[in-house]
Design brief:
The protein has 148 residues and is an alpha+beta fold. It has four helices and seven strands. A seven-stranded antiparallel sheet has the order 1-7-6-5-4-3-2. The relative contact order is 0.25.
Length: 148
């Protein structure tokens, strides 16, 4: 298993930050590399919401199906996907910043490879994945601060 954890402070209200990461319509607007989102369920947010996301990763397009498996409004949301022989389990958590300067956003992604090739390649990709996630969080921060 590979675990990546990143956090940052967003100068925006907690509800705005949560809505930016938990509502895929907002998240896809915030993250410029996301080119298309197709909902696969009636639910658009909350537990049971399923969608297919297409994003540009370097010079390639990657499409992934994700499902919201945990949702506590203004606290945390969890997305899970099975792609490339790996279970990708991502939790976004929001809380008031301890310094009172906005909202603390924490993202934890666990990658659990379940196929042989993925067991070899997933740990090698950790640095690239962390860089991509950091870019997503920076985009979320900019979007939420503009909206907040």
């Amino acid at each position: 298993m590979t675990r990546t954890e990143l956090s940052l402070t967003v100068d925006a209200p907690l509800g705005v930050v949560f809505s930016t990461v938990a509502d895929i319509a907002n998240f896809s607007k915030a993250v410029p590399h996301i080119e298309h989102v197709e909902f696969l369920s009636e639910e658009r947010t909350g537990v049971g919401a399923r969608f297919r996301e297409t994003r540009l990763m370097g010079s390639r397009r990657a499409t992934t199906e994700l499902e919201v498996t945990e949702y506590v409004r203004d606290e945390r949301v969890r997305f899970v996907s099975d792609a490339g022989g790996t279970i990708w389990d991502t939790i976004f958590t929001v809380e008031p910043d301890p310094d009172g300067r906005g909202t603390r956003l924490v993202m934890v992604m666990e990658a659990r490879p379940h196929k042989f090739v993925a067991r070899l390649t997933t740990p090698l990709m950790k640095r690239v994945i962390a860089k991509a996630i950091a870019a997503d969080l920076d985009a979320v921060k900019a979007y939420a601060e503009a909206a907040g």
